[in-house]
UniProtKB/TrEMBL annotation:
InterPro entries: Homeodomain-like_sf (IPR009057), HTH-type_TetR-like_transc_reg (IPR050109), HTH_TetR (IPR001647), Tet_transcr_reg_TetR-rel_C_sf (IPR036271), TetR_C (IPR011075)
PROSITE patterns reported in the protein's UniProt record: HTH_TETR_2
PANTHER family (alphabetical): HTH-TYPE TRANSCRIPTIONAL REGULATOR RUTR, TETR-FAMILY TRANSCRIPTIONAL REGULATOR
Record's protein name: TetR family transcriptional regulator
UniProt KW keywords: DNA-binding, Transcription, Transcription regulation
Domain HTH tetR-type: 3-63
Membrane-crossing residue ranges in chain numbering: none
Keyword Chloroplast on entry: no
DNA-binding region(s), chain positions: 26-45
Gene Ontology terms, MF aspect: DNA-binding transcription factor activity; transcription cis-regulatory region binding
Organism: Planobispora longispora
Length: 184
C-alpha cells in the first residue's frame, strides 16, 4: 500500500477514535472516511485493534521527533515540550486521551499500548546514547525511568489534573529529574 494512502487510513482511524472513542471506531467508518474499501483495510489489518495499533505507532499525528540540541538537558526539555504539545493541542490530545482510555478498558489493546510506548522509547534512545558519549549521563541511568518520570509528569498535569503547563514547566521537570529536589 502506498505510504500516502496508509497515512490517510491512519488519520481516519485516529480521527474516529478521537470523535467516537474505541466503541465507535469501526473499520467500516474508517473505510468511509478514508475512501478505501473495507476489504482492503482488512487485508492489511485483520481487526480494529490491529488497525489502531498500527495507526498509533505509525501515524504522523502522534509523532514526536527525538531532538538533538547538543545537550541532554536541552534534548529532554525539547522532548517534554513536544509531549506537552501532543497532550494539549487537538487533534493529537483527543487521540492520546481516547487511546489511553481504550487501552485501560480493553485488554486486547494492552499490547498496543506497550508497542506504542516501546516505539517511542526506541526513538528516544538516541538522546541517551549521545548523552552517555558526551559524559552527561551515568552508564547505569535508566532511560525508560527518566522518560516515565518526565512523560508521566506531563500526562498527570495536563490530562489527569487538567492544569496548564507554564513556559518553565519543561525546564523545571528536567531539572528535577536530572538534579533532584534536595538542597545543594
Amino acid at each position: 500500500m502506498a505510504p500516502r494512502r496508509q497515512q490517510e487510513i491512519f488519520q481516519a482511524t485516529l480521527g474516529l477514535l478521537a470523535e467516537k472513542g474505541y466503541e465507535g471506531l469501526t473499520v467500516e467508518g474508517v473505510a468511509d472516511r478514508s475512501g478505501v474499501n473495507k476489504t482492503t483495510i482488512y487485508r492489511w489489518w485483520p481487526s480494529k485493534a490491529a488497525l489502531l495499533a498500527a495507526a498509533l505507532v505509525e501515524a504522523d499525528t502522534l509523532a514526536v521527533e527525538a531532538p538533538d540540541t547538543g545537550s541532554l538537558r536541552g534534548d529532554l526539555e525539547a522532548l517534554v515540550r513536544g509531549i506537552a504539545a501532543l497532550l494539549t493541542r487537538p487533534p493529537a490530545a483527543d487521540v492520546a486521551v481516547a487511546a489511553l482510555g481504550a487501552a485501560v478498558h480493553h485488554p486486547e489493546l494492552a499490547e498496543t499500548a506497550r508497542r506504542f510506548f516501546a516505539d517511542r522509547l526506541a526513538r528516544e534512545e538516541q538522546i541517551f546514547e549521545r548523552a552517555r558519549r558526551r559524559g552527561e549521563l551515568r552508564e547505569d541511568a535508566d532511560p525508560m525511568l527518566i522518560m516515565d518520570l518526565l512523560g508521566g509528569a506531563v500526562w498527570l498535569r495536563t490530562v489527569f489534573r487538567g492544569l496548564p503547563l507554564d513556559d518553565g514547566f519543561a525546564a523545571e521537570a528536567v531539572r528535577t529529574v536530572l538534579d533532584g529536589s534536595a538542597p545543594a
